[in-house]
Amino acid sequence: MFLDVLEKYDWNKIKQDIYSKTEKDVLLALNKPKRDLEDFKTLVSPAAFPYLEQMAKLSNKLTQKRFGKIIQLFIPLYLSNYCVNECVYCGFNCHNDIERIILDEEQILNEVEAIKSYGFEHILLVTGEAPSIAGMEYFERVIKLIKPYFALISMEVQPLEASEYIKLKKLGLNTVYIYQETYNKESYKKFHGKTKKSDFAYRLHTPDRLGKAEMHRIGIASLLGLEDWRTDAFFTALHLKYLEKKYWKSKCSISFPRLRPHKGSFKPEFSISDAELVQLITAYRIFDEEVELSISVRESRKFRDNVVKLGITSMSAGSKTKPGAYALNYNALEQFEVFDDRTPSEVVDMIKSKGYEPVWKDWGYYMQL
Amino acid sequence: MSLIIADKTFNSRLFLGTGKFSSNKIMEEAVLASGTELVTVALKRVDLKKENDDLLKHLKHPSINILPNTSGVRTAEEAVFAAQLAREALETNWLKLEIHPDPKYLMPDPFETLKAAEKLVKLGFVVLPYIHADPVLAKSLEDAGVAAVMPLGSPIGSNKGLKAKDFISIIIEQSNVPVVVDAGIGAPSHAAEALEMGADAVLVNTSVAVASDPVSAAKAYKMAVIAGRLAFEAGLTRESDTAEPSSPLTKFLSEE
């Protein structure tokens, strides 16, 4: 399991490695045919920052070679904002006193109708962590309910057991996103206190359980804002390589959740600038030519427009981050404030204007049994 | 001489993939410019329920035949299931069988491919399996009744050319069904090389789709494939590895 791997590394030592990389290391990393984890450290290091344009060009070339000139589209469907956790960086924090709802069948179908009218075939189901309200029984019901309407179903909810993932996969689930938030054990403790989420190892081993369940796609990430992004990126990359090697039948995906304003008062101690986020995106691509890189509406229009060509292969569009927002206009609590609030068709036009084909559908229920 | 696969005759020995293009319109222009008569379409990309799927709409030309592919499935069972839906929805029994449980390098699974091919042939499909350049597997698939074999030149999307050349030439030598070199072709010269070796056709995608001018790239492939085939039919002698000794070793036989 991944904790055994993680424990072989010392956070501070890795951080020091990254910050002591030199220009010579950068040139070596950029000119190799394949890069290893040591090169990844270099690519996210301050030493590589002056080489951003070169990294962007390389990332563009490698991405086109593997993925072509396309961007896949998906939309999140927030099902419930109930949550037992108290993550200070998240709007769903149980201490935030706001309206909580969980969508029933009829409400979900209303939302689905609105989502389908935009053209989406790939959907991401999202809930907070509240297993007694939104647990396995609910997930099974929802997946069965929406399966006829979508070509690909993803989910971002609390960590589940391998046997539960197998069950949901059989019903049509394709992808699970589970973010470690931070790979720094001490910081993780600090942010997740005594809640259900405080079990670092259980969360860390969720991708292992997904791999054992042979889930088609596993999405991982560290939150950008909780810790030093460079060091967390190294551990995310280490996790990625571990998963690709051990669970070779599952595809991996990396996201870039940069903290956004939300209900609550948390101010990120560690920030990442736009230019640094570009460095991070291109570093992943140069390190791993095959991994899917996904960006959400947490980012601005300008940023999203420009990363289409820089290595990103998948994007959400038209997202609302509270339950019942597409059709029902509920005034419930949102998870975070959307930065790019364009409609899906506006995003599609933007992608086309960049010389890329927006792809609505890249899967089908008939592809997985 | 034209190429015959199952019940169809092809004047062009260039097959094209339809993924990765910057728009379906450019894909259509490249397809038409290439002169191809067979294009492969990923089942996962098309909407089998929709009458007017945008990708298929751009391929509605009398000269173009559709070869649906099962890219994305991981098992024989999934491939057979997807194939049956495709046959119904797209009204063709032709199928490019691709089974790759490895989503990273998309390496074809020989065991599941053989299993699926046996089943699909029995179900009446014209099966063109995507395989490693494995001569034994190619023969086993031929025995199972496939219409052609499609060995990879090098890893898909790699543009590395015919890295598996030695094994492909064994497959060509031994095969009683057409051999289509698929995957890894990154330049028209690679395509020409495959045809010169005696491959019956090549399938190209990334190299055309990602070129800055896909239409010109398609034309270049069209010419390269024609040239390669002509060279093969002309029986060009290959340059020899060893120098000819100036006084032949068997000269003594004709000496008095």
**What is the typical, i.e. mean, pLDDT of chain A?**
93
* Largest interface (C-beta under 8 Å): A-B, 30 and 34 residues
Name the shape of chain B in a single word: globular
- Total number of strands of chain A: 9
Based on the structure, what is the oligomeric state of the protein chains?
heterodimer
Summed over residues and divided by their number, the pLDDT of chain B gives a mean of 91
Give the overall form of chain A.
Answer: globular
Helix and strand run of chain B: EEEHEHEHEHEHEHEHEHH
Computed over alpha carbons, the radius of gyration of chain B is 20 Å
Poorly predicted ranges of chain B? none
* Alpha-carbon distance between the two ends of chain A: 27 Å
- Rounded to the nearest angstrom, the distance between the terminal CA atoms of chain B is 48 Å
Number of helices of chain B: 9
Strand content of chain B is: 15-25%
Keywords:
heterodimer; A: 369 residues; alpha/beta; 12% strand; globular; B: 256 residues; five-stranded parallel beta sheet; three-stranded parallel beta sheet; 10 strands; 38% helix
How is this structure best described in words?
The complex is a heterodimer of chains A (369) and B (256). With 369 residues, chain A is α/β, with parallel strands linked by helices. Chain A has helices at 2-6, 11-19, 23-31, 37-43, 52-67, 105-118, 136-146, 162-171, 185-192, 200-204, 206-212, 229-246, 274-287, 301-307, 344-353; strands at 70-80, 122-127, 152-156, 173-177, 217-220, 251-255, 292-295, 314-316, 357-359. Chain A has an 8-stranded parallel barrel with strand order 1-2-3-4-5-6-7-8, surrounded by 5 helices. Chain A is globular. The relative contact order of chain A is 0.18. Chain B is an alpha/beta fold. Chain B is 38% helix and 15% strand. Chain B has a 5-stranded parallel sheet. In chain B, helix 3 crosses helix 4. The longest helix of chain B is centred in the last third of the chain and has 21 residues, at 214-234. The radius of gyration of chain B is 20 Å and the shape is globular. The mean pLDDT of chain B is 91.
